[in-house]
Structure to design on (155 residues):
């Protein structure tokens, strides 16, 4: 698993609308809160996705974009985003290649990924790694704290 101060592995993944999202497209422009979650429509994942949605404005003020990743299909991500009004991209990682690059896959991708969030700076460096399967709120709270710290170092 990449650690704090490591270069974030670049990736490209499919979105519900058929476009490809590439991490490198954010480089130099926006920080990225990249969160891996197990499955669309499950209680914990729904709470996490809605938590990020509800605090998106706060993240935007910190010059950050949210990107969610799971092994669900682009179509299922589209239904999940529409059902819960998720205004940020959800990347389909069907072959668990992105999860593998970030060291969050379980059993070689046969099971849903672990719940892990990476705070990636505009420089492409990982500034924080947040791990917690059960404390869902920890991901958004710690991501915001990391972004505030990052913003202070940029000023």
């Amino acid at each position: 698993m990449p650690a704090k101060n490591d270069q974030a592995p670049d990736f490209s993944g499919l979105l519900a609308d058929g476009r490809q999202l590439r991490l490198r497209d954010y480089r130099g422009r926006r920080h990225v809160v990249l969160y891996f979650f197990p499955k669309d429509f499950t209680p914990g994942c729904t709470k996490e996705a809605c938590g990020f949605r509800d605090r998106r404005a706060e993240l935007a003020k910190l010059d950050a974009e949210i990107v969610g990743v799971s092994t669900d299909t682009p179509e299922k991500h589209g239904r999940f985003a529409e059902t819960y009004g998720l205004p940020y991209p959800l990347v389909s990682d069907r072959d668990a290649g992105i999860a593998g690059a970030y060291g969050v896959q379980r059993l070689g991708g046969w099971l849903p990924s672990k719940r892990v969030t990476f705070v990636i700076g505009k420089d492409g460096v990982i500034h924080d790694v947040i791990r917690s399967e059960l404390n869902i709120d920890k991901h958004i709270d710690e991501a915001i704290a990391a972004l505030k710290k990052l913003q202070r170092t940029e000023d």
